[in-house]
Every structure is written in structure tokens, then in C-alpha cells.
Amino acid sequence: MNYKSIAFVALLFTSLYLLNSCTNENKGPAATNQAPKMEDHSQHSMAMMQTMNAMMQRTNTMKMTGDFDIDFASMMIEHHQGAIDMSEVELRHGADAQMKLMAQQIITAQKAEIAKMQAFIQAHPATAKQPMTMGSMQMMYDQMKAMPMSGNVDQDFASMMTIHHQGAVTMAQEAVSKGHHADIKSMAQQMIADQQREMAAFQTWLDKNRK
Question: What is the CATH code of the structural domain delimited by 39-209?
């Protein structure tokens, strides 16, 4: 092989190497951009679970008074705050219009109920009558922890909020049967009606959209 042939072969290999390098460089950013998107979705679902962890931590540090109505209101305030925090994650990172609308409705309704329960607590000094246990809260939390996350924010929101609402319904039913104040019984009955209606809407959405 003469000098010109060797030079030509060397030039050919150099051109192929540069072309391959450029191709790989072009693929690199696309590949690196895709992985974080999947990870972010999973992180958002986990962020909702973290709001539940925080809710249970606050609940476990509550000082129970022995007054059923006061303890129910105090516990439900924390329960509602957990729903609000979870709904705010859905508003920021969800994609489905119906789920985002339901999240906003939950935030609005449960902030209003928190204000009513805070007013009740301030107006009624605790008197030891009948203690309330945290069994319903713990059961709800255990069910959420056992729920497999899909990584789809809207789906995980609907699934987790269904469990969360069921916990509220169980607590509210206990308040209807064991509560002493008419205001607490009335609020509990309204919670049951509202959250059962929303649970049905979540289940209908999940039946149509579960992936």
C-alpha cells in the first residue's frame, strides 16, 4: 500500500470516528432528559406520602384531653390538613383536569371545616367525658403505606385520597354515635356525606383511568 492509500484510509477512519462522536453527543442530552422526568413523577407521588407521614407525626404528638368532641375536632384538623397538603401536591404536579379540580375543592372545603373546628375548640373547654382513640387514623395510615405507588401522580392522588377519605368517614361515624355536642355531630354528618360523594367520584375516575 502506497503513502496516498494509507493517508486515505487514515482520513476515512478519522471521519467515521468524528461522525460517531457527534451522533452520540446528540443522543446524550435526550437520554439524560428522559430519566429525570420519570424520577420526578415518582418523587411527586412520594411527596404525597410524605404529607401523610407528617400528618401522623403531628397526630401522635397530640395531647388527648379525654373529651371526645375536643379530641375528635383536634384529630380531624390534622386529618384535614393532611388532605390539604396532599391536594396541593396534586395541584402543582398533576396533569388531569378533573383530579386538579377535586384537589382544589378539597382544599377549599377542608380549610373552611378546619376553621369551624378550631372555633369549636376555643368555645368549649375540655371536660373529661369519653376518650377517643387513634385507631382509625392508624389503620388509614397503614393502608396508605401498604398501597403500591404507580408513579402516576393523578392515579396515586385518587387512590390515596380514597383511603384518606374512608378514614375520615370512619372517624366521623364514631363522632355521630359517641359525640356530645350537636355542632360536632352536625359537622361529622356533613363530612360523611361530602367525603363519601368524593370517594365515589375518585373510584369512577380510577375505573376509567387506572394504568
Answer: 1.20.1260.10
